[in-house]
From TrEMBL:
Source superkingdom: Bacteria
GO molecular function: hydrolase activity, acting on carbon-nitrogen (but not peptide) bonds, in linear amides
InterPro entries the record matches: GlcNAc_PI_deacetylase-related, LmbE-like_dom_sf
Name of one Pfam family that matches: PIG-L
Name under which the protein is recorded: GlcNAc-PI de-N-acetylase
Taxonomic classification: Bacteria, Bacillati, Bacillota, Bacilli, Bacillales
Gene3D superfamilies hit by this protein: LmbE-like
Length: 227
């Protein structure tokens, strides 16, 4: 696959780690990847000496470095408050606008139906992005957006990461080393040296017949997307 546009939508700077091997493969093959980051991640530290402002600034730089290592074309920071993403028109309208401006062929986002997912930001960004990816084609949603280059659009394929019912696997064995390097950019979250075992635990889920490093997804099929 080449020449496609892919929108990856996450809640925090470092969430792309769930699918960064897949991102590497996509950018290597000549596709344009856009990364939407919902919040500034300013609550992502246990160090009381660090202010939320300082954490946000640090994580923005870490995100930019990781994106550079992954070959991401553009990072779009929405700047919402960490831990406070709301399933509301404000966020949905923003995501609909991005879908209609960028017009992605594929969308990757959190699986909001994952059982025992404790982070509400992960669920909220997943629910909102899935709606925008699918319903962006319906011009009666946020109709005032439609003008010029902003047109009604639906992404053809939708892949959910951090899922507990995977039905689609990407072999990232060949890019795993570079995934580790990109992950190490998030030094405030993963420390000075990335623990490869931990990283494998974050992404890996049992696959019946392979001994390779994989990233699992729940692919939503057309039958899931059309009523
Ligand atoms: Zn997160």
């Amino acid at each position: 696959m080449k020449g496609k546009k892919i929108l990856v939508c996450v809640a925090h700077p470092d969430d792309e780690v769930f699918c960064s091997g897949t991102i590497l493969k996509l950018t290597d093959e000549g596709n344009d990847v856009f990364l939407v980051v919902g919040t500034q991640g300013e609550k992502g530290s246990h160090d009381p000496a660090l202010s939320p402002l300082a954490i946000a600034e640090m994580r923005r730089k870490e995100m930019d470095l990781a994106a550079e290592r992954l070959g991401i074309r553009e990072v779009i920071q929405l700047g919402y408050q960490d831990g406070e993403l709301q399933y509301a028109n404000d966020l949905k309208e923003t995501l609909f606008h991005l879908v209609r401006r960028i017009r992605p062929d594929l969308v990757l986002t959190f699986d909001p139906w994952k059982r025992y997912e404790i982070h509400s930001d992960h669920r909220t960004i997943g629910f909102s992005m899935i709606e925008a990816a699918h319903l962006g084609a319906n011009c009666w949603y946020y109709r005032q957006q439609i003008a010029g280059d902003v047109v009604c659009h639906r992404s053809q394929e939708l892949y959910l990461f951090n899922c507990d019912e995977p039905n689609y696997y990407v072999d990232i064995t060949n890019v795993f080393e570079r995934k580790c390097l990109a992950t190490s950019a998030h030094r405030s979250q993963f420390g000075q040296a990335v623990d490869e075992t931990r990283l494998r635990q974050i992404i890996n889920q049992p696959h019946p017949d392979v001994q390779m490093t994989i990233e699992p997804f729940h692919k939503m099929w057309r039958s899931d997307l059309y009523l």
